[in-house]
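To assess whether the prediction recovers the assembly geometry, we first specified each molecular entity separately, as shown.
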Amino acid sequence: MTPGASPAAGGSGEIPDRPAAGGREHGAGEAGAGIGVGIGAALADWRRRSTWVDMVMLALRVSLLVLVSAGLLLSLAHNEYSAGDWLSFAVFGLTLGSIYALISLGYTMVYGVLRMINFAHGDVFMAGAFGALIVADPLIATGSLLAVLLLIAVGAATSAAIAALVERVAYRPFRHRGTLAPLICAIGVSFVLQYTARGLFGTGSRAYDDIPLLDGVVTLGPLQVPLVQIFVILAALLAMGALHLLVQHTRLGASMRAVAEDRETAALMGINADRVVTLTFLIGGVMAGTAGVLYALVFKQIHAFMGFAIGIKGFAAAVLGGIGNIPGAMVGGFVLGLAESFGPAALLSGFGIPAPYQLKDAIAYGLLVIILIFRPQGIFGERLAVKRM
Amino acid sequence: MMAPDMRGAAPQSLVLKAGIVGGLVGVYVVAVGVFAAFAARPVVAQSVSLGQIMLLSIALAVGWSAADPRQGRSRRLAMAAAAGVLAGLVYAGALLVAREAKLQAMFVALSPAALNTGLFGKAGMAALAAAAIIAGLSALAGGLARQMPAPARRTLLAVGVAILIGALLRDLWISFFSNLLGGRWWVSTIYAGNGLSWIGTAVAVAVGLAWQAFRTLGRREAGKQRTSLAGLVLLLAAAILIPYFTNAFVAQVMLLVGLYALMGTGLNIELGLAGLLDLGFVAFFAIGAYVTALLTADSPLAIAQLSFWEALPIATLCAAAGGFVFGLPVLRVRGDYLALATLGLGEIVRLLVVSDMSAPFIGGAQGIVGIPRPELAGAPMVSQLSLYYLTLALTCLVALAGWRLQHSPIGRAWAAAREDEDVAATLGIDLVQSKLRAYVLGAAFAGVAGALFATTLGSIFPQSFKLDVSINVLALLVVGGLGSLPGVFVGSLILIGLPEFLREFGEYRYLFYGFLLILVMRVRPQGLWPDPLQARSS
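The predicted structure of the complete assembly is given in tokenized form:
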């Protein structure tokens, strides 16, 4: 692998590394000749080594940085929002982030074991929300917290079943072929899931009955937080904690990690890789289904086509944290949620853009693109990323 | 789909599995609402509806998969029939329960009327018995079909397909027959109401038989190479003649097919030749359309009043420049990552276009209206047919350019980089230049498609430039056969044209679009008309 061609090296690694290397070369003979000379030589060296594409990338990097800082400063100077606003943005960002985090886990785990993006994962999330809808009204009528947890369990089970189905239909037949067939198959499954949900549940939005238990508002100092947001954050954290324990401290988790590391070797060690892949899809589905129900609780409406855009954001969160990296995906989800809830106010309002809230998705996608271009290994990096490239 | 599992299973569990799965598929079809939509559509007037055919073919499939070839002849048929009866019982039982439980509040398609049709208008035990008998008999037929010699089976299949094509593409055939000598007489003889008449059915059967005979003869004679060339000529002849002999609606659909084929040719350069998976392709299409609109439209937003012919090259150049700007930063991102990076870029463009921020310049959600039609020899091209021929000409031109590129040194450099970047770089291929070239050319082709789209529609809205366009183009490319130019046309005809002709089924056609994608990929992952070179290597 030529280092220049790999995104990992071609992105952020390259520019700081090269001057450092050049600096050592020149500075070695003339110790103490002044840092200025070293930097000048390093700069000359970098200019000699880099192509025009590197220059353009550097310019892009600088202009992005300038744009973001200008937006930030202008927005702060604008002073349109109170401290209370910012705090409620933060809580909402964490709520949104916990849903993204749960979805991104499915992408990251599947990518870990198969090196493929599950394009139908957003619809697996949608299926969870609708699976719970079937039992929602009678369960909610009982009025207990247990019923809400049961609701989540039903959503998780539905999504897990659908995720296993996706694996069976779209991924298993193409296990040993490096073509686009699984991608197109997954897109096909995505269409089928969306239009099945549309056929079953109708074109309009649906909603669960109101849950009086989660209807209240909690006052935290200056801040009034809807109870349901706190519930969602806690539930998501709980699910992620359980997943962490599963992956780190059980035999199944160990085999998942082994398959993610190297499927062939894991198979030689007696691990049933096919079973692990199916279980990975199942667990990813459980997380996505939980997210689906939590989403329905917060936003109070679900529809058959909601999965796609949220799925892309879940993927963005996975990339943000370093795809294949489970704790990374969790953090990535929260980062994305916060970026999306702060972004319009903190970056765009300063430029005087009308209705900056319309562009919150653009901020999420922009973050995805920027990370993919400049730091494809994600915030925390991932050992797999180096090997894969 | 389930065949590999069943081969090893015991006969009883095979029957059980086929029966239950088949019954549940029947329930699915009713609950999703497909059955109700299909039941309202006659295939043979006043006797057979599409819904009935659908249920019968599910039962046939149950019988087919339950007729275990390792068992004796009579045992096999008994297994098929038993599985069919079981499927019928599962199906009718579930629908009866649904009727009792009044599930329509949750599942909108389970209306009393739909359930009544699904249960053959019967109640209780009578419905169960009817379903069991009907499903058992058709499953028996399915079992018999599996025992038949292959030529007989193929002939039956051809006849069935011919009847379905005759009935479902009714509008296409009617517009075709109306232009023939004695058009009215033909139409009223072959069709009755919404379906085929008995005479029409007989004609379809005859066509199916003739087609099968033709294929059997053809297989004996012609070599592989010649059929491929003949197919190409046939395809082009059909593209030129069919819209001419039919009506404006057909021309309009074919125009859409041509537009997507144009974009497919562009994406084929990026993906099929250079191996760059691009899901933000729609952005270049949008650039082409918006530039054309801004340069030609009779609207306060317009910045110039050029003719279409002057705007076309500018729009193409702008799209190519867009390809350059997008391509440069994402060039080093590979594989699936590239797909998501380009998807993100495409979505950002759409969000910016639709936002209030851009409304003063490009119309925001209101779009741009009043785009004139292209003029030929001083007169605007108003008919759908002339616009279609314009599209066809440009598509052929672009396809020719794509074909020439593929077999040029540039194309070989793409192929080398696609197969192995490191080896290609070692051989002296400038990867950055080669990839950028693919990106820019692909974007330019999409820009041509965008310009055509704007001028043929006369108005553009941001909703037309959603991610679905990129996904459709990608899907038609892969379904047709990656890297294959005739594949682009076949894929476009099937994935874009067919849903348009099946408009009467509303949104359900997208459900079948999804199933079709899965089916094609499972049965022919190399595509329907693969490129000979790539087919060999995979």
